[in-house]
Specification:
This protein is of the alpha/beta class. Helix content is about 30%, strand content about 25%. It folds into 2 domains: about 1-20 and about 235-420, UDP-n-acetylglucosamine1-carboxyvinyl-transferase, Chain (Alpha-beta prism); about 25-230, Alpha-beta prism (UDP-n-acetylglucosamine1-carboxyvinyl-transferase, Chain). The longest helix has 13 residues, at about 235-250.
Length: about 425
């Protein structure tokens, strides 16, 4: 049996919704618990398949973990294990974040090359560059990245790449540097709030870190880290998805448990397209959509620019704007697999290299579609909310990687949406195989 999401379009969203904890923050934070023998407690953890997968990886690395009521507790049971196997790691890119902590604490690591959503080339060369600079020996053997060190040493490291800074690479080097001898300076570090949240957790463990949230992070290595309790920041991408959902349905939605100061770029784009965006407090924002959606040009950049993780969602909105919009992704230039699915719903989108030209249409039509990656799945739901008729979205496993019960939250706002279990139709080849 498989799941699909069925959306009946045409409902105006209104009411209040709460954002969950951040997926992109919690995964490296969980990996960071490998840096201490002492118990750690992580709160405001979203119930996502990626979180459960990371806990499976930690369990396989000799940790004891538990997850209940939004709280994860971890403790080391066996530090002799240093292999993160392919069958787990290939499912999620963030699993590479165990590499730095393993090298720093256990002096060795064997981590399969990571997987995750297919959104274009996402090399890990900057991770390797940074860890080698800290005196780790690394090589690829039979699909595994194998590393050893007699002890990491602080260094001055430049982590810039052809498409800007690397978030997971910054996280990996930052975690490893906390236990390195001497001082490490990371230049062109990622400035994302998720990196700051990781630094806050590491600081609570006893790390000495300066400059998190800026392009230069300085880490003074310490001999050991202790246990800590930490509350994960809200998921800004989930909150931004609800903001765009309000705009595309001409809705009136208040998002709580979020950080408006971390979503300025998306808020500005929504204002340009005619929506009203009002920060009600430091933890809430209200978005009221307009019946007339103006076209806008959007270019994704590293934080604090417009996030690539909200590119598919804003494309759904521009699909029904009154005019032509141009969307350029400078973070992941190949992240456009959702274009063909939008066009199945009647959108008029043409891709040209890292740019998509969107000719807005009067309305979208519900259709069977498939989620091609995590953020595309959210974008297709938004398109379904605005479409006439019924939209069936398949390959829901992508959605479950990064959105905690999103269909239930949308129902609370008045959406006609449901998760349906179904038996896939057997093909002739399947019958012959049987």
């Amino acid at each position: 049996m498989l799941d699909k999401i069925v959306v009946h379009g045409g409902r105006r969203l209104q009411g209040t919704v709460h954002a969950s904890g951040s997926k992109n923050a919690v995964l490296p934070i969980l990996a960071a618990t490998l840096l201490t023998e002492e118990p750690c407690e992580i709160r405001n953890v979203p119930d996502l398949s990626d979180v459960h997968l990371m806990l499976d990886i930690l369990d396989g690395l000799g940790m004891r973990t538990s997850f209940a009521s939004g709280t994860v507790r971890t403790e080391v049971a066996d530090e002799s294990i240093s292999t993160a196997p392919y069958d787990l790691v290939h499912q999620m890119r963030a699993s590479i974040c165990v590499l730095g902590p393993l090298l720093a604490k256990r002096k060795r690591a064997q981590v399969a090359h990571p997987g995750g959503c297919v959104i274009g080339t996402r090399p890990i060369d900057l991770h390797v560059k940074g860890l080698k600079a800290l005196a780790a020996e690394l090589q690829t053997v039979h699909g595994y990245l194998e590393g050893t060190t007699v002890g990491l040493t602080g260094a001055h490291i430049f982590l810039g790449g052809p498409f800007g800074s690397t978030v997971t690479g910054t996280a990996n080097v930052l975690m490893a540097a906390t236990l390195a001898r001497g001082t490490t300076v990371i230049e062109q570090a990622a400035c994302e709030p998720e990196v700051v949240d990781l630094a806050d957790f590491l600081t609570a463990m006893g790390a000495q870190i300066e400059g998190a949230g800026t392009p230069r992070i300085t880490v003074h290595g310490v001999e050991r880290l202790g246990g800590a309790t930490h509350e994960v920041i809200p998921d800004r991408i989930e909150a931004e998805t609800f903001m765009i959902a309000s705009a595309i349905t001409c809705g009136d939605v208040r998002i709580e448990s979020c950080r408006p100061d971390q979503m300025v770029a998306v808020a500005e784009v929504l204002r340009e397209c005619g929506a009203s965006v009002e920060a009600l407090s430091a933890q809430s924002v209200r978005v009221r959509g307009s019946r007339y959606i103006k076209p806008v040009d959007v270019t994704t950049f590293a934080y604090p620019g417009y996030p690539t993780d909200a590119q598919a969602q804003i494309m759904a909105l521009m699909s029904v704007a009154d005019g032509i919009s141009v969307i350029t992704d400078k973070v992941y230039p190949d992240r456009y697999m959702h274009v063909s699915e939008y066009n199945r719903m009647g959108a008029q989108i043409r891709k040209n290299g890292p740019t998509a030209v969107v000719q807005g249409v009067e309305f979208l039509s519900g259709a069977p579609v498939k989620a091609t990656d995590l953020r595309a799945s959210a974008g297709l739901i938004l398109a379904g909310l605005a479409a006439q008729g019924e939209t069936e979205m398949h390959q829901v496993q992508h959605l479950d990687r990064g959105y905690d019960r999103i269909e239930q939250k949308l129902i609370q706002l008045g959406a006609a949406i449901e998760r349906v279990r179904y038996a896939p139709r057997r093909r002739k080849s399947d019958r012959r195989a049987a």
